[in-house]
């Protein structure tokens, strides 16, 4: 491996875009683990019940913790109360944004759309642009020059990671885009993946977002207190730490520019609380391989394909440790990648055109 700290251009408008085309990595055919057709059809069945239940629990928790935080305001108890409120406000909004964006959380389409719009606002994400950036993320997952949702480049920029603990890098960038959209403009990267037919929706959503935020600011000024913003707006900053950590464990440290989600995605075993917050996105190989399987069926899908996949990380802390170690090593050698052996029951990895279509032999 080269030890030179070569920094690639991770934007979707730079020279890496053409390189991805030349290597046959754009909108390519991805590896999928074998699942019997009838079983996959069962797993893809959508239901309203689980998502309605989970959404009511989530909103109930937000309201209950909001009341607790309100009555703790002005005391030291406000610190843990608002910390909990922020985490329950921001973390599920990220996962609900994600699943409802796929249209799989609910069977009823309008329910997906309503929760998607609410969760997008709470997660501080432009709803329509993020829908299309995420579509690209699934089409060209961790393909440099194509995927606009790569969390961190190589070598890593630690300043950005630490800023993101309080969303101080991504948050201001989102507000910049809101203002841009309000004036009927998109940035260069958004022009790459948002269809022209969606522009009016983008601009309308941004104007609604800013009206809400300006109303909250006006209420703060009227009350002479930041309390209203502590409930709407600021939780998208002070409550984002778990969102960051979840996002880091999805793909970081693994392969770039491959055509096999077993190489570039990570499945993690988590406890029920984290799985509720994350809406089962800890089954990330499964989700990327079969994105139309609803969140509530991902654990069952995991059982179907685990003999064809690398072992899941045993816990969330274990996965985070692997990521941090990999990022430190990539700081010295950007080519460093975690290689995970497959079980003897698995089919070989599919790397892509540079290294051959399939790995030369199964590692077990």
UniProtKB/TrEMBL annotation:
Cross-referenced InterPro entries: FA_desaturase_dom (IPR005804), Fatty_acid_desaturase (IPR012171), Rhizopine-oxygenase-like (IPR039393)
GO cellular component, one term: membrane
Keyword Transmembrane helix found: yes
Entry keyword annotation includes Membrane: yes
Domain of life: Bacteria
Any Pfam family matching the protein: FA_desaturase
Alphabetic keyword roster: Membrane, Transmembrane, Transmembrane helix
Positions of the Fatty acid desaturase domain: 75-313
Residues that span the membrane, as ranges: 51-70, 208-231, 237-254
GO biological process, any: lipid biosynthetic process
Entry GO MF terms: oxidoreductase activity, acting on paired donors, with oxidation of a pair of donors resulting in the reduction of molecular oxygen to two molecules of water
Protein name: Fatty acid desaturase
Organism of derivation: Paenibacillus validus
């Amino acid at each position: 491996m080269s030890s030179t700290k070569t920094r690639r251009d991770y934007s979707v408008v730079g020279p890496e875009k053409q390189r991805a085309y030349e290597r046959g990595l754009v909108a390519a055919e991805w590896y999928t683990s074998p699942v019997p057709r009838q079983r996959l059809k069962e797993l893809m069945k959508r239901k309203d019940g689980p998502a309605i239940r989970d959404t009511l629990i989530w909103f109930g928790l937000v309201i209950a913790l909001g009341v607790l935080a309100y009555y703790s305001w002005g005391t030291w108890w406000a610190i843990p109360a608002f910390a909990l409120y922020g985490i329950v406000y921001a973390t599920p909004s990220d996962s609900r944004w994600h699943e409802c964006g796929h249209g799989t959380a609910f069977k009823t389409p309008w329910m997906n759309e309503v929760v998607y719009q609410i969760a997008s606002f709470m997660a501080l994400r432009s709803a329509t642009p993020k829908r299309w950036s995420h579509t690209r993320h699934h089409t060209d997952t961790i393909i440099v020059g194509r995927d606009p949702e790569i969390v961190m480049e190589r070598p890593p920029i630690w300043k950005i990671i630490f800023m993101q603990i309080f969303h101080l890098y991504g948050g201001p960038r989102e507000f910049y885009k809101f203002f841009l959209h309000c004036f009927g403009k998109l940035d260069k990267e958004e022009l790459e993946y948002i269809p022209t037919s969606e522009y009016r929706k983008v601009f309308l959503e941004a104007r609604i977002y800013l009206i809400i935020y300006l109303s909250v600011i006006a209420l703060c000024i009227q009350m002479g207190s930041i309390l209203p913003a502590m409930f709407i707006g600021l939780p998208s900053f002070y409550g984002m730490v778990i969102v960051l950590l979840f996002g880091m464990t999805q793909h970081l440290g693994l392969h770039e520019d491959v055509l096999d989600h077993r190489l570039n995605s990570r499945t993690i075993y988590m406890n029920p609380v984290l799985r509720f917050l994350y809406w089962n996105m800890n089954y990330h190989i499964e989700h990327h391989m079969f994105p139309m399987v609803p969140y509530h069926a991902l654990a069952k899908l995991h059982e179907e394909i685990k003999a064809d996949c690398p072992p899941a990380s045993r816990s969330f802390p274990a996965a985070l440790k692997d990521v941090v170690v990999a990022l430190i090593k990539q700081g010295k050698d950007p080519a460093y990648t975690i290689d995970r052996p497959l079980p003897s029951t698995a089919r070989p990895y599919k790397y892509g055109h540079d290294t051959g279509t399939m790995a030369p032999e199964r590692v077990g």
